[in-house]
Amino acid sequence: MSALAPRVADYLRLIRFQHTVFALPFAYVGMLLAAGGWPGWLTFGWITVAMAGARTTAMALNRVIDARIDALNPRTRDREIPAGVIRPQGALGLAVAGLVAFAVAGWALNPLTFALLPVATVFMVAYPYTKRVTWACHAFLGVTIGAAAAGGWIAVTGAFDAPAWWLWLGVAAWIAGFDVVYALLDERFDRDHGVHSVPARFGAATARLVAIGAHVVAWAALAVAAFLTGLGPWGWAGLVAIAASFVHQHRLVAQRGAAEALRAFDANLWVGAIVLVSVALDLALRST
Length: 288
What we know:
By secondary structure, this protein is mostly helical. It contains 15 helices and no strands. It has one domain: UbiA prenyltransferase (Tetracycline Repressor, domain 2), CATH 1.10.357. Helix 13 runs antiparallel to helix 15 (271-287). The longest helix has 25 residues, at 41-65. The mean pLDDT is 89.
C-alpha cells in the first residue's frame, strides 16, 4: 500500500487533479438549474463519474500527445512523461480507463448523453493538435471543456435546451480567455518552436485584449443563462463576484506583465466554485 500511494500521486499530478474545479462545478450548475434544485444522489453520482472520466481522458491524452513539446519547454520539461516518471503507455491506459468511466456514466444517465459520447471524444483527442495548426486553439479548448456545463443540463433533462447553450458559451469563453492569459508564459517558446497561440501570433498586448473580450462574452452568456432560468439575488451576486475576479486577474497582468499570468490563471480556480455556491443558495432559498 505504501508503494502504491506515490504512483497514485504521480498519476494525479499527470492529470492535474486539482484543476478539476474548473469544469466540474459548472457541470453541477447545469445539473441544479435543469432540475430546479437537487436532482437526487444517483444523478449527481453519475454526472461526477462522467466529468471525472472525461477530464481524465482529455488530460492524459494531452500529456501523451504533447510530450515532445513539453520536453523542449523549460517550464514543462519536469512534467511526468518528459521526466520519465510515467511512461506514455501508462498514461494511455489511464485515458482508456477514463473513457470507459465516461461511457458507462453517459449510458446510465440518458440516451442523449450516451449518443454525444463520440462527439465529446473527438474534441478531447483533437484539442492537443489544434495548437500545431491555429492560434484559435484557445477557443477549441474552451468549447471542449465548456461542454461540461451543457452536459450537466442534458444529464438531467435529456434535452439540449436554450440555457444549456448559453451555459456552454459562457464557460467556453471563460476557459478560452484564461487560456490566452496562461499562454503569455510561453509566448517566446511558442513562437520559436512553431506552437500556435494568440500571444505568439499577435503579441502580449493584443492577447490581453482578446482575453478581456472573451471574459466579457463569458459574463454576458452566463447572465443570459441566469435570466432564462429565473435566478434570484444570490445567483446574480455570484455573477457580480466573478466579474470582480475577472477584473482582478486582468489588472494583475496589465500592471505586472506575463510574470503574473500564473497568478491570474490560479484566480480562476475560484470562479466555478463561486457560481456553484451562489446558484445552490439561490435554488435552496427559492424552495423554502
